[in-house]
Design goal:
The complex is a heterodimer of chains A (about 325) and B (about 240). Chain A is built from 11 helices and 13 strands. Chain A has about 325 residues and is an alpha/beta fold. In chain A, strands 5-6-7-3-8-9 form a 6-stranded mixed sheet, sandwiched between helices. Chain B contains 11 helices and no strands. In chain B, about 65% of the residues lie in helices and about 0% in strands. The chains are: A alpha/beta (about 325), B mainly alpha (about 240). Chains A and B meet through α3 of A and α4 of B.
């Protein structure tokens, strides 16, 4: 199978100008400007195949949005190659964007002052969507995303959750083969998130639409994507299955113990106490160092216990730890 | 109301000027009617341009760049220049057009032009050329915001200043200003030289006769360069954070 997205040594460097102050500074700015070079995206390479749903994650300012903006043809790279759907996005922009969809969670692509229906009508004309395809998609998406209640509302009066659902619908009306979703769940409550995730899943599974999803919310990725790419400081640190990432770094487990009586220092050799509240103590231990059963055995030999619970570390914590401790650096993983 | 108000305010400007001029014997050999002729046509063309190209006006285009709304246009499968053109249409500029037209007609009433077929044809061609010319300047101004993100006031010298200077017979200006508006911003080919031909004025600048007829060429050339610069600017668009 041929990849739908092929990215080779893609680089984007921003010049951040330092302005001189004052009137003479303004004049000087015209001739002599100092700048810093920021390598927002630094020689990244990857391929994405038709039908995949890939989570593209990383901390703030890692280069996620810059990558997406180059892939959608908004930004022209400083260096490197991108071929998407057979096009170089920024060179053949007009043809290229006909077959892609994009949602930028931070801002709408709809017309601010127009009611939603008018926005959709305009999109139908702009993308010259055949009537039957438009109708079919429109009624289907309207139902899944529950757009009916605010169909006549101008976009500026929509709530964030409503707007995001409307934007998703708008990005998919023309049956694109590939969709870029940049933070589609940002700032949304649990219910709205769930609805949007279900819709994304539907599009990917039923329509076989390829989806590249960037997000802050790791639960988006863990619920939707098999494959993740982690970017930080403009470099891709990991590209593979989420499972294998968690197996490697998600070694921490928690053991929650309720003691029958108060012990001043219920210490264990292979686990350390992360929290303690009266008779309830939470231990953290590494799967590789000691098994849960051994640990429980040690505990019950020394102390009287009422209740026990073993928990895996939440994925969010694992990923945060990967970011913070920069665990993927100097690691042979990924690309 | 807006339209009429606009026209009246702008009209006063010309009326004040004409009172001043009536105290003298015209300016440098040009009568009030003759000045009204180029003033009117320039004002009219600028009004038309301002209506058609207002998407490129800094007031519309600057915020579009700074707020990253330009992204939205780039995502649509439609020519980007057309989208910016269509992004705003300001009917209010009708006032400037009306005012220009009135002054132009006033000029005609004062003049006894020896009309020929070529002259009759050349007047609308000249106006269209001026529209393109001013439009190019707007496009160039808008393009600079890809780098500066802010308004470059200095460019107003060429757009608004240009239209102002084109309203007068240009031989009255000192050489350095004339030089700028001949070689840097070739405004002189879009008002003074064509007017010399249509009004059959003697030209103290002693330019060859054909320069009276190159207005469409100059306008087309400037538009071509402006669009090249615009394309180059889009490649340097940096969008906004996240």
């Amino acid at each position: 199978m041929k990849p739908i997205i092929r990215v080779n040594k893609l680089t984007k460097t921003f010049k951040i100008y330092k302005n001189h102050k004052g009137f003479f500074g303004a004049v000087r700015n015209l001739f002599d400007r100092k700048f810093n070079l920021i390598h927002a995206v630094d020689k990244i390479s990857f391929e994405i195949y038709p039908g995949e749903m890939v989570g593209y994650i990383g901390p703030n300012g890692a280069g996620k949005s810059t990558t997406i903006k180059m892939l959608t043809g908004l930004l022209v790279p400083t260096d490197g190659e991108v071929i998407v759907n057979g096009y170089v996005p920024w060179k053949e922009r007009k043809h290229y964007v006909k077959d892609i969809g994009a949602v930028f969670g931070q801002r709408t692509t709809l017309w601010w002052d127009l009611p939603l229906t008018d926005s959709f009508d305009l999109l139908r004309d702009i993308y010259t969507i055949p009537e039957e395809i438009y109708k079919h998609n429109f009624y289907l998406f309207k139902e899944i995303l529950a757009l009916d209640e605010f169909m006549e509302t101008p976009v500026r009066s929509l709530s964030l959750g409503q707007r995001m659902r409307a934007d998703l619908c708008a990005a998919l009306l023309h049956n694109p083969s590939l969709v870029f979703l940049d933070e589609p769940t940002i700032g949304l409550d649990v219910v709205a998130k769930q609805r949007i995730r279900e819709f994304i899943q539907y599009i990917n599974q039923e329509r076989k639409t390829t989806i590249l999803l960037t997000t802050h919310d790791i639960s988006d990725v863990s619920k939707l994507c098999e494959r993740v790419m982690i970017i930080d400081h403009g470099k891709i640190l990991f590209d593979g299955k989420l499972e294998s990432l968690l197996k490697e770094f998600g070694g921490h487990r928690l053991l929650i113990v309720e003691f029958a009586e108060f012990y001043p220092e219920p210490k264990l050799a292979d686990a350390h106490i992360v929290q303690r509240k009266g008779d309830k103590v939470i231990y953290s231990f590494e799967r590789k160092v000691i098994s849960a059963s051994k640990l429980i055995h040690q505990l019950s030999e020394k102390y009287r216990l009422i209740d026990l619970e073993v928990r895996d570390q939440p994925i969010e914590d694992t990923i945060r730890q990967i970011y913070e401790d920069r665990l993927l650096y100097n690691h042979s993983y990924g690309t | 109301m807006d339209v009429i108000g606009n026209a009246v305010i702008l009209g006063f400007y010309f009326i004040a000027f004409s009172f001043a001029l009536s105290q003298f014997d015209g300016i440098s050999g040009w009568t009030l009617g003759e000045v009204a002729f180029i003033w009117g046509i320039t004002e009219f063309s600028f009004g038309v341009m301002d209506m058609l190209f207002s998407g490129f006006d800094y007031d519309a285009f600057g915020p579009m760049i700074r707020q990253g709304r330009f992204d939205q246009l780039l995502l649509r499968p439609v020519n980007i220049t057309l989208q910016v053109l269509g992004s705003r249409f300001v009917l209010r500029r009708l006032g400037k057009m009306l005012e220009g037209l009135t002054i132009f007609i006033f000029g005609l009433s004062q003049l006894d032009i020896q009309w020929t077929a070529v002259k009759v044809l050349y007047v609308p061609i000249l106006s269209i050329s001026q529209v393109l010319f001013f439009g190019s300047l707007f496009i160039i101004g808008a393009t600079t915001t890809f780098w500066t993100k802010e308004r470059l006031e200095i460019l107003n010298i060429f757009t608004y200043g240009g239209s102002e200077i084109m309203s007068y017979p240009m031989h009255i200006f000192p050489r350095p200003i004339r030089w700028i508006f001949t070689f840097l911003v070739p405004a002189i080919f879009l008002s003074y030289f064509p007017a010399v031909y249509i009004l059959e004025k003697s030209d103290p600048l002693n330019a060859p006769r054909f320069v009276s007829f190159i207005a469409p060429l100059v306008a087309g050339g400037v538009m071509f360069l402006a669009l090249r610069f615009w394309r180059f600017g889009i490649k340097n668009y940096q969008s906004t954070g996240s």
